Amino acid sequence: MSTAVELPTLKPKDFASDQDIRWCPGCGDYSILAQVKKLLPTLKIPRENFLFVSGIGCSSRFPYYVETYGLHGIHGRALGIATGAKCANPNLQVWVVTGDGDGLSIGGNHLIHAIRRNVGMVVLLFNNRIYGLTKGQFSPTSEFGKKTKTSPLGSIDYPLRPLSVAIAAEGTFVARAVDVDIKHLGYVLGEAARHQGTAFVEIYQDCNIFNHQAFAYATNKGTKDDSVIYLQHGKPLVFGKDRDKGIRLNGAVAEVVRLGHGVTEDDLLFHDESMDDPSLAFLLSRLRVPAFPEPLGIFRRVQRPTYEDLMADQLKEARDKQGQGDMTALLEGPEAWDVA
Amino acid sequence: MIAKTSERSTEKSIQELDAVTIRFCGDSGDGMQLAGNQFTNTSVLFGNDVSTLPDFPAEIRAPAGTLAGVSGFQLRFSSHEIYTPGDEVDVLVSMNPAALKANVGDLVEGGLLLVDEDEFTPTNLKKAGYQTNPLQDDSLAGYQLHKVKITTMNREALKDSPIGAKAVDRCKNFFALGMVYWLYGRPMEPTLDWIEQKFAKVPEIAQANITALKTGYFFGETTECFAVRYVVPEAKIGPGRYRKVVGNEALAWGFVTAARLANKELFFGSYPITPASTLLEELNRCKHYGVKTFQAEDEIAAITSAIGASFAGALAVTSTSGPGLGLKGEAIGLAVMMELPVIIIDVQRGGPSTGLPTKTEQSDLFIALHGRHGECPVPIIAAKSPGDCFYTAIEASKIAMRYMTPVILMSDGYLANGSEPWKIPRFDDLERIPVVHLTEKNNGDDFLPYKRDENLSRPWALPGTPGLEHRLGGLEKEDRTGKVCYDPANHQHMTNIRAQKVRNVGKMIPPTQITGDDKGELLVIGWGGTYGSITTAVQSCQRQSLSVSAVHLRYLNPLPGDLGEIMSRFERILVPELNMGQLRTHLQAEYLREMEGLNKVQGKPFLVSEISNKISKMIGQRVSV
Predict the structure, then answer these.
(1) Which 8-state DSSP code applies to residue B442?
(2) Is B579's pLDDT higher than 90?
(3) Is B45 within 8 Å of A323 when comparing Cβ atoms?
(4) Is the C or the N end of chain B the one with fewer CB within 10 Å?
């Protein structure tokens, strides 16, 4: 794909479409869009090679707001569409934008299978713990007991954790970021874009109309330091305003400890993105406030052949073994005969 | 032409026959499909015209010896052109009591009945629901019954074989096959060659099967069992190069060919479902043709992957049967809105719901026509014979790409599994399919993804093309620009355009062919796999100079432009279909004319006699077939 020709330098404004953005003022999606538009030019990929695919939901309006090839599909089905496009043209840089409803409810099945196949694409799941576009019903990530229009006495659905699902689906790149945490978000998106295979990113997103401040604990100055922990590969899990708290394993269970009084950083859990066994990543995906700070960053990053590469390899293998397909041989088969 | 087995001199008399219908039946796992397939192959190579009807149960392995487990294979082979596997069975080969019970009703009076006598044990008789042994009472007196100790003789012949006892018994089907080969003067060579190839890695099995086949053959020759031997001469078919073809194979090759003709990559996204699964399997054997196959996690992922692949520029196809067509409805609607070429194959089976997975039917016309919410027209095309599946695939691809629309291709279980001799087309003689992808803006400095040509078709601009970035989606869009648009007048306008575009497909429909005169008393209109039965019945009418003609529709939406005029020249119209009147309802609504139906929903194709009897009743004259 790389050529000797100088590619024109792209800027964020080259990725701005001419559409009026229809998200509500104050929506977290604006921030995410800005970070994506900031990132794309830096990837040094021609603009025409990007493909944004979405389903249905506020998240899924995203393709209209970037000046690239885009497919606004049907509810829950973006991943099938994206898989087909990537397999047909592996040179495309495919991004999928979905939400907690589109991706985990109706689209849950497709999410699991796309991830386990490791199709080369970046999957952004905007998790606002609510159904925004349809105006306020609960979603698969809404808290137990959440009162919404379709759960006036409180939701009796036990919620899913997107990252736990992604890790269970054998995800090779699994990460979390926060919509307004723009520097970190930009970093995570950049790492996701560079990953070979499916890069799944859960983004905590604020729906200020139907579920405002669902993630306030992660963004408010006063609570943030004790409520989130930034993962860094090879570094111990330390958090807190004074960086005086940490997470360590006690047997198979995580616990929060205070540093000092005999407890040093060396006693803590050290993050390892590249562990083959996904158990550590899964454990991290279970950490929730108030018992634990919620991890942000890259939970897991391992290498595995991508689906599209395996598909192309098999076509090549078949050609090597059986020779380039000959149409006459196909039509005649092994036992043709002539009638005079 | 293949060499025939050397004729040994024999006292038996030889009787020439025009055509024979033979049915092999036994337990699933008895190798009846294999025996039937081999007899078909051999007969096709011998030069007969052949038509087949495999009949197998839905379960993988029902309890041995029960009626639920009976598997059968019927074929008709002939010295003239035939279109159906036969109404009545002339020869029934039954490997056990259950098979006999399930099938003897179809054996013609005086027909040849060969049974494996050894299998008629008290246990097996009980399993089949027999109170007494039919081989010993008079119940089979109306047939030419031949009780053959197939199991015993097969075991005897293979007593020195190193393979185990179970494997020995599995060779019985070859014994039965050998007997019938001798009876009908079939050469053993093609099957011998096949056995050696198929079992090359297990020579003891190959040898056992060969021994079983020859033993059965020589049994026929040597014993007093059969007084008469039969010969069915080669059929006179047009000059050319031929092979045996099975419907689903032909369909698969049709798409591989279409992709080559269009200079495109074929992408096939599918999910296993009876009777369409063999399409996915066959295309998986074509990787060296560059075919990309994707076994999706479900029916919806199958079609959405095809939509994505189509957007990226592949010739994109998905396949299913009735239940899957239901699931794919929403996605087909998306493809209609996105105006992308995608072919959806429906290999119909008994419905509704899970229905009869291994039995044939043609009851999905309504869902093909109407199975999407909104005003959502889709072109529909139907194959009429196993070999025709090849050409239908190419035609569907042409329509899809020229008009930028999904297309539904209807087949059915009977065609999918049926086989016949097929005149092989020369690839170089097939018309290329021109496809244009925009490389530049199409409206001055702008690119308009919905700017239409004279067919009302929009441009197919592929991702990866600089400067043509655009978004497609399911929301209503402004004409020409493709931007999301809720304007009332625009929605009406787009609805009208989408409908007109599908009507424009009519330009591709050739003049309708009529079997018989172009006017008369009765016109029989059919579609899909009923072609064989209808044609045979109507040809009999022609031979008796009756005023009956036939039209077989390939295009169901839009309907051919000349159909109204053709129908007006006939006094009455009969629409035979394997459903409760779906085409008839569609035609009546379109042409505001009453028609009569012949409707059968029994999981079986029409018997020729069912159609000819109905015609007889309608015209008041007996039709003899």
Answers:
(1) S
(2) yes
(3) no
(4) N
List the 311-330 stretch of B: residues with Cβ below 8 A of A.
Answer: 311-314, 316, 330
> Are A327 and B307 in contact (CB < 8 Å)?
no
Full DSSP string of B295-326? E-SSHHHHHHHHHHHHHTT-EEEEEE-HHHHH
Q: Which residues pair with A269 in a beta bridge?
A: none
Give the count of Cβ contacts less than 8 A between chain A and B. Answer: 206
Report how far apart, in Å, the C-alpha atoms of B21 and of each of B216, B244, B623 are.
20, 18, 21
Residue by residue, what is the 3-state secondary structure of B378-416? CCEEECCCCCHHHHHHHHHHHHHHHHCCEEEEEEEHHHH
CA dist., res. B420 & res. B535, Å (int)? 16
Q: Contact at 8 Å (CB) between B505 and B387?
A: no
Nearest CB among B265, B304, B472 relative to A77 is that of B304
Q: Which residue of B has its CA nearest to A1?
A: B464
How large is the ipTM?
0.96
- Sign of the dihedral through C-alpha A235, A239, A241, A243: negative
Average pLDDT of the residues in B475-487: 96
Closest by Cα among B27, B16, B15, B183 to B91: B183
pLDDT tens digit string along A179-202? 999 999 999 999 999 999 999 999
Cross-chain residue pair B316–A74, CB shorter than 8 Å = no
| Res. B66 pLDDT band, cuts 50 70 90 | confident
Q: Which of B265, B331, B465 sits opposite A74 (nearest CB)?
A: B331
Residue A142 to residues A14, A58, A100, A152, A208: CA-CA distances in angstroms? 37, 16, 9, 13, 15
Are B52 and B75 in contact, with CB atoms under 8 Å apart? yes
Mutation site for B-interface testing, chosen from A51, A62, A68, A72 by largest number of B Cβ within 10 Å:
A72
Q: Give the residue carrying structure tokens 């629409």.
A: B575
**Is-above-0.90 flag for pTM?**
yes
Which residues of A fall within a CB distance of 8 Å from B289? 325, 330
Element (H, E) at A74: none
In whole angstroms, give the CA distance from residue A117 to residue A172: 10
What integer pLDDT is reported at residue B2 of this predicted model? 34
- Read off the pLDDT of each residue in B79-92 and give the average, rounded to a whole number: 94
Cα–Cα distances in angstroms (integers) from residue A55 to residues A58, A102, B474, in the given order: 9, 6, 10
Q: Residue B237 above 70 pLDDT?
A: yes
Q: Where are the alpha helices (DSSP H) in B64-188?
A: 97-103, 122-127, 150-157, 165-169, 172-183
Which residues, numbered 285 to 304 in chain B, qualify as contacts with chain A under a Cβ-Cβ cut-off of 8 Å? 286-292, 294, 296-298, 300-304
Residue type (1 letter), A270: F
Shortest Cα distance, chain B CAs vs residue A331, angstroms: 6
DSSP assignment string, B483-509: -B---HHHHHHHHHHHHHHHHHGGGGP
Tell me the pLDDT tens digit for each residue of B510-561. Answer: 999 999 999 999 999 999 999 999 999 999 999 999 999 999 999 999 999 9
Q: Provide the shortest C-alpha distance from residue A71 to chain B (in Å).
A: 5
